[in-house]
């Protein structure tokens, strides 16, 4: 808790810091895995010849299963042991990754991706909840959480770079085989360096609650992804209704259970709720801006994927540095100022995108650096608040909720900001005369489609289409930047109010 403790907690030693390094391996892997597959899809399409639906499920099966099982797996780790769950998840993830690399058909790869989601859901809550118990001293724990958070951010940027390098020299399966050498050291070193922890008085296994939260999360994430890809539809409404229904039943069951799988009373604590809200919105806006910036770098400025990924490195470096340095600030600055200020700094980065000239790469780099400066500080302290507000025995469930906020944010980023870019592009792109219906649909559907169609047109029509498409796309980026800035500014106010009575985070 945030109130001063009577006893001084033991400080972590060399073994715990070495254990943190080991725990960073699955964090980096999961983060890299979120982005590396996109670069392998063209080769997968050529080799396995999946249908369009199968290709979508190759991408979506993993995050859908992962998001649906995070909370149940966090509760399971509290019961059976978080280190044990981490080792089981790492073993399964490495084995299934090897099988995925050798998948002979699209159907087999979809199945492998779904099973990877199962084992991946065991990794992230376990790593964060183990930190809660390995670092009882508040200052050391904040530093450990900062390393954890920056590792997750670094992995997101490393994904495109690693994917570009691997696919330049190996076949598509190499992006899956990457998991094997990353996780093998963890399986050897974690039993030595990472102490086991669990809830000493776990409740009974609640299968109905696990099923309800899984259905709610899968339906919600699926609806978000469908909204981002196709806009409002009956399918989106059905997914939202299913998510809401299962969610209501889950909440009612938790409130009526003497030993709930997820103690919803945690949300009464302003620091816990404020930290989760911060991470949800920060993740939403960050993923949303990467969606548009990565396309702009590759499709408008003509950079190959590896070069475009390198342009993102300054922002990633600032995110890492900000997350590590903020640990020294929170002893003198209240959390409300750190989180609210961090979100406002992120908002100012979005204003750079809104008001700047996107024709050159400089504005994009500056915007990402400013966004990273605010994101690193805010998300590090928010993660510490989420862990601090729960008893150690509930660290697994709290960590799972925190990870669910990240996953939801990733889906919302594409659905909200990505849809703003796509809708503006479609509405503003002026097509040259003479296109057949298929060409018109392709060119108005995406900037990549416009480039494909323009390549087959005459010089005048090609220039006309490209000029209109680029202008429309940049208008969409400006709109999404405005939405992101407003969302971040509003959240900064709410988070500031929630945390206004929380004192400075002192060493304990």
Task: Write a structural description.
The chain has 508 residues and is mainly alpha-helical. It is 78% helix and 0% strand. It has 19 helices and no strands. The protein has helices spanning 14-36, 41-48, 52-80, 82-101, 106-134, 138-169, 174-177, 179-193, 207-230, 234-256, 270-300, 305-311, 313-325, 335-355, 361-388, 395-428, 437-445, 447-454, 459-498. The chain is globular and about 70 Å long. Mean pLDDT is 81; it is low at 1-6.
Task: Write a brief structural summary.
This protein is mostly helical. The protein contains 19 helices and no strands. The chain folds into three domains: 149 residues, Up-down Bundle (Growth Hormone, Chain: A); 56 residues, no CATH class; 244 residues, MFS general substrate transporter like domains (Growth Hormone, Chain: A, Up-down Bundle).
| Beta content | under 5%
| End-to-end C-alpha gap | 10 Å
Low-confidence stretches: 1-6
Largest sheet: none
Mean pLDDT: 81
CATH H-level superfamily title of the largest domain = MFS general substrate transporter like domains
**Which CATH top level class of the largest domain fits?**
Mainly Alpha
Give the structural class: mainly alpha
Shape: globular
Number of domains: 3
Task: Tell me what the CATH architecture of the largest domain is.
Answer: Up-down Bundle
So how many helices? Answer: 19
């Amino acid at each position: 808790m945030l109130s001063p403790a009577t006893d001084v907690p033991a400080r972590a030693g060399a073994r715990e810091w070495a254990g943190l390094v080991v725990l960073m391996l699955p964090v980096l892997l999961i983060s890299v895995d979120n982005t590396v597959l996109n670069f392998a899809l063209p080769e997968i399409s050529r080799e396995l010849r999946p249908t369009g639906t199968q290709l979508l499920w190759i991408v979506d099966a993993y995050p859908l299963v992962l998001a649906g099982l995070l909370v149940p797996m966090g509760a399971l780790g509290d019961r059976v042991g978080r280190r044990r769950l981490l080792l089981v998840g790492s073993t399964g993830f490495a084995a299934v990754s090897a099988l995925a690399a050798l998948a002979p058909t699209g159907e087999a790869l979809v199945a492998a991706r779904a099973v990877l989601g199962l084992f991946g859901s065991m990794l992230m809550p376990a790593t964060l909840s183990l930190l809660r118990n390995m670092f009882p001293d508040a200052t050391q724990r904040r530093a450990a959480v900062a390393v954890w958070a920056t590792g997750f951010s670094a992995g997101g940027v490393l994904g495109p770079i690693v994917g570009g390098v691997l696919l330049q020299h190996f076949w598509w399966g190499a992006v899956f085989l990457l998991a094997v050498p990353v996780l093998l050291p963890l399986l050897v070193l974690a039993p030595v360096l990472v102490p086991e922890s669990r809830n000493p008085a776990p409740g009974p296994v609640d299968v109905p609650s696990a099923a309800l939260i899984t259905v709610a999360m899968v339906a919600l994430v699926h609806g978000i992804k469908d909204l981002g890809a196709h806009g409002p539809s009956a399918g989106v409404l059905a997914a939202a209704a299913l998510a809401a229904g299962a969610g209501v039943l889950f909440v009612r069951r938790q409130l009526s259970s003497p030993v709930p799988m997820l103690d919803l009373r945690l949300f009464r604590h302003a620091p816990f709720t404020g930290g989760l809200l911060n991470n949800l919105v920060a993740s939403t806006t960050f993923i949303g801006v990467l969606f548009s910036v990565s396309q702009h770098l590759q499709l408008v400025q003509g950079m190959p994927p590896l070069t475009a990924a390198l342009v993102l490195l300054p922002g990633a470096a600032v995110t890492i540095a900000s997350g590590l340095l903020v640990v020294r600030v929170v002893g003198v600055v209240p959390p409300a100022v750190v989180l609210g200020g961090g979100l406002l700094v992120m908002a100012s980065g979005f204003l750079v995108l809104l008001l700047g000239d996107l024709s050159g790469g400089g504005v994009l780099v500056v915007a990402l650096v400013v966004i990273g400066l605010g994101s690193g500080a805010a998300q590090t302290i928010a993660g510490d608040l989420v862990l601090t507000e729960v008893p150690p025995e509930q660290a697994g469930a709290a960590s799972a909720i925190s990870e669910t906020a990240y996953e939801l944010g990733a889906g919302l980023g594409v659905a909200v900001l990505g849809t703003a870019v796509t809708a503006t592009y479609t509405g503003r792109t002026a097509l040259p005369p003479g296109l057949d219906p298929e060409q018109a649909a392709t060119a108005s559907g995406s900037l990549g489609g416009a480039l494909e169609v323009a390549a087959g047109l005459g010089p005048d029509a090609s220039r006309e289409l490209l000029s209109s498409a680029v202008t429309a796309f940049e208008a969409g980026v400006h709109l999404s930047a405005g939405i992101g800035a407003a969302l971040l500014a509003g959240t900064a106010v709410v988070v500031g109010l929630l945390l206004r009575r929380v004192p400075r985070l002192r060493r304990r």
